[in-house]
Design goal:
Blueprint: H1 8-14, H2 16-52, H3 57-62, H4 68-78, H5 84-97, H6 110-147, H7 153-168, H8 171-185, H9 201-227, H10 230-237, H11 242-279, H12 285-294, H13 298-326, H14 329-334
Family: Belongs to the binding-protein-dependent transport system permease family.
Keywords: Cell membrane, Membrane, Transmembrane, Transmembrane helix, Transport
Organism: Solicola gregarius
């Protein structure tokens, strides 16, 4: 009689640690596959958007009164005389090598424009993301703890009304209001440029206000849901201290939903930086893409669209990886 064959499944079931690592690797592989597919869709969409838009980029670059010979010379310089498939392949090659073509209006490599402008946008966005998470989680947690079970109805009404109003105000409208208060009525803070720590206050406040209110409402709803669970009531019955209760049982269980939804909020906030940068004359990609669209600088528009898209994809990928670390049950549900 021969022994039965040992399969990978039976080996994994006999070793819970190996099964967990295998699920984690599969989850990571799926997320990386989704990232690659989304990147292909993003780059293809940006490429077709520029190719299908009306107008002649070579004529725009050469000038309205340029001769036909000069326009054709400019067309060759920009690579627009190449077949469409070849230009598509050159776009991927350029992304890999950092050669994204030349700006038709600035007459400098697009990569140089991104190198100068991208840090200003990243500073604004990363600072806003950090403050949103730093403020929204404790505010939502405290609001849920103080108003659970219908307690403090006045506080609940005030918090809900304020958060609802703030969450529906667009970033650009909040930015205009801040300009009116701090530039027209007072002279407390600079309202334009990037000239020191004080210049960050108003643009970041315009980005943080609505997203913090919206995310704190989600955290509060999740907190109320967790506080009604049996394991929380059991912990209370055992007279567990409230600090330990909230840090050990409530906070970890609200982070999964909070991180998932924060990815959607942060993606929308990246798009909001375009308008906020223009309101506060911030020297980032948002202000640059508006000028590039007005002047029909298609290579620069294409590169900035791809850059914004990659940033949003990376934000969502990082959040998915954080979910895998914070709540390993995510990999179990996915499998």
């Amino acid at each position: 009689m021969t022994d039965p064959p040992v399969t990978a499944a039976s080996d994994a079931s006999s070793n819970p640690g190996s099964a967990g690592r295998l699920r984690g690797l599969r989850y990571l592989a799926r997320r990386l596959t989704h990232f690659v597919i989304s990147l292909v869709v993003l780059v293809t969409g940006a490429f077709l958007m520029v190719e299908l838009v009306p107008g002649d980029a070579a004529q725009t670059s050469a000038g309205a009164n340029a001769s036909g010979e000069l326009v054709e010379q400019r067309r060759v310089e920009l690579g627009l005389d190449r077949p469409l498939p070849e230009r598509y392949v050159r776009l991927w090659t350029g992304m890999a090598t950092g050669d994204l073509g030349e700006s038709t209006t600035l007459r400098v490599p697009v990569s140089e424009v991104l190198k100068v402008r991208l840090p200003a946008t990243l500073e604004l966005a990363l600072l806003a993301v950090f403050l949103i998470l730093l403020l929204a989680v404790p505010i939502g947690l405290a609001a849920g703890a103080l108003t659970r079970g219908g307690r403090r109805p006045m506080l609940e009404a005030g918090y809900t009304s304020t958060a609802t109003v703030l969450s529906v105000i667009p970033e650009f409208l909040l930015g205009v209001g801040l300009v009116y208060v701090f530039a027209v009525q007072t002279d407390l803070l600079p309202v334009a440029g990037r000239s020191g720590p004080a210049s960050y206050v108003l643009p970041v406040a315009a980005l943080v206000g609505g997203s913090t209110a919206a995310l704190s409402r989600i955290v509060r709803a999740e907190t109320l849901n967790v506080l009604d669970q049996d394991y929380v009531r059991t912990a209370r019955a055992k007279r567990m201290s409230w600090i330990r209760l909230y840090l050990r049982h409530v906070l970890p269980n609200i982070l999964t939903t909070t991180l998932t939804l924060s990815g959607l909020l942060l993606g929308g906030m990246m798009a909001g930086t375009v308008l906020v940068e223009n309101i506060f004359a911030w020297p980032g990609l948002g202000a640059t893409i508006v000028q590039a669209i007005i002047s029909k600088d298609y290579p620069l528009v294409q590169a900035i669209v791809i850059t914004y898209g990659i940033l949003i994809l990376l934000i969502n990928l990082v959040i998915d990886l954080l979910l895998m670390v914070v709540d390993p049950r995510t990999t179990l549900r996915e499998s």
